[in-house]
Design goal:
The chain has twelve helices and twelve strands. It has 378 residues and is α/β, with parallel strands linked by helices. Bound molecules: 4'-deoxy-4'-aminopyridoxal-5'-phosphate.
Length: 378
């Protein structure tokens, strides 16, 4: 079957896999022991990768804290401000109803420590409602955490508008860019964002590596406390021996994202044409505003066909998902589509197709056949 679940994770670029193999099999030194060549090669590779990983976000190497992935970066950005909030009495957090669980859950955990969390609602277009942000902001708002691109719908979020509302306010602004980093560059260089979460395995690097990219304000990075203590690596924010093989592969993937961004994008746009024409023939309803969508994702509903049923029936032809991978072990109806105001029935019948520049053509005739058969109950 053709893999159409690139929003869950992407295939690994061969050159990124080769880099990972090199630092696994040959240059396996510890980056913290540059006293010999093994350690020195590892240190040099990690330093180089740090520079490359910062680039798609318009950030320098010293802004990059490597983590185990965007989940960890999100947790660090949110829980990491607990001490500062407690010290200064700023105990208010604003996030949105359509965030990934790795933002919603640490925010909820902060409530147990006396913080208050407000959620911006979302509209049918798939964007969080930035107009409500000004109303919710308070003098004691410590953190605003919003996503860049939604993982279920592919809808690009209103970051520019958010920056305008936040101008002049003290609140730290964290952006979960797991789905945008390395693909949609324009917003990340915005001078108002304080922290950006990114993930390697969404941009063709192996799994288990990500970063929190930080910006200095008045000469200082956001006052995060570490979630773990140890040997002081990563500016004391993420101690532990650096996984150099993953870091180097992530660097390679970031380099390719910069170099090939435009040609990848064009390939995705072409692929989308085929997908949308098939969906049109099937009478699918697209979820979220198509004009705001990334070119490699489509979320849609097939009236009367439950997502679960469709995923199973299509499995031998295309590999797709009915909900986000992170919550699919717990098949609850999508809270993201729910927050956009879709009916429960439509949410239950929603599928996500997501592809990339490497995705081969699928057998769309068979896809159409299968859906038509499901519809006629054969
Ligand atoms: N945020 C978003 C928007 C995501 O799509 C994902 C991955 N599904 C994550 C965070 C978590 O990323 P990771 O798998 O790197 O922990």
């Amino acid at each position: 079957p053709v893999y159409l679940d690139c929003s869950a994770t992407t295939p690994v670029e061969p050159s990124a896999a080769a880099v990972a193999a090199k630092f696994t099999e040959k240059d396996y030194g510890n980056a913290a022991s540059p006293v010999h060549d093994y350690g020195l090669f590892a240190r040099t590779a990690a330093d180089h990768a740090r520079k490359l990983v910062g680039q798609p976000a318009g950030a320098g190497a010293d802004s990059v804290v490597f983590t185990g992935g965007a989940t960890e970066s999100n947790n660090l950005a949110i829980l990491g401000l607990a001490e500062e909030g407690t010290r200064t009495g700023r105990r208010h957090i604003i996030t949105t109803a359509i965030e990934h669980k790795s933002v919603l859950e640490p925010a909820a955990a902060m409530e147990r420590f006396g913080f208050r969390v407000d959620h911006l609602p979302a509209g049918a277009d798939g964007r969080f409602d930035v107009n409500r942000l000004a109303e919710l902001l308070r003098p004691d708002t410590l953190l605003v955490s919003t996503m860049h691109v939604n993982n279920e719908t592919g809808i690009i979020q209103p970051l520019k508008e958010t920056a305008e509302v936040l101008a002049g306010h003290e609140a730290y602004w964290h952006v979960d860019s797991a789905q945008g980093y390395g693909k949609e560059f324009t917003m990340l260089t915005d001078g108002r964002i304080d922290m950006i979460s990114v993930s390697g395995h969404k941009i063709y690097a192996p799994k288990g590596i990500g970063a929190l990219i930080m910006r200095r304000r008045d000469g200082r990075f956001p006052p995060l406390m570490p979630l773990m203590y140890g040997g002081g690596q990563e500016q004391g924010l993420r101690p532990g021996t650096l996984p150099v093989q993953l870091i180097a592969a992530f660097g390679e993937a970031a380099k390719l994202a910069m170099r090939d961004g435009e040609s990848r994008r064009q390939k995705c746009i072409e692929y989308r044409r085929a997908v949308l024409s098939v969906l049109g023939e099937l009478g699918a309803q697209q979820n979220g505003d198509e004009r705001l969508c990334m070119p490699h994702t489509v979320n849609f509903s097939l009236k009367g066909i439950k997502a679960e049923t469709a995923v199973r029936a299509l499995k031998s032809v295309i590999a797709v998902s009915g909900t986000s991978a992170c919550t699919s072990h717990n098949p609850m109806p999508s809270y993201v589509l729910g927050a956009m105001g879709l009916s429960a029935e439509r949410v239950e019948c929603s599928l996500r197709f997501s592809w990339c520049h490497m995705t081969p053509d699928a057998d769309w005739e068979r896809v159409k056949d299968i859906i038509r058969k499901l519809r006629s109950g054969i």
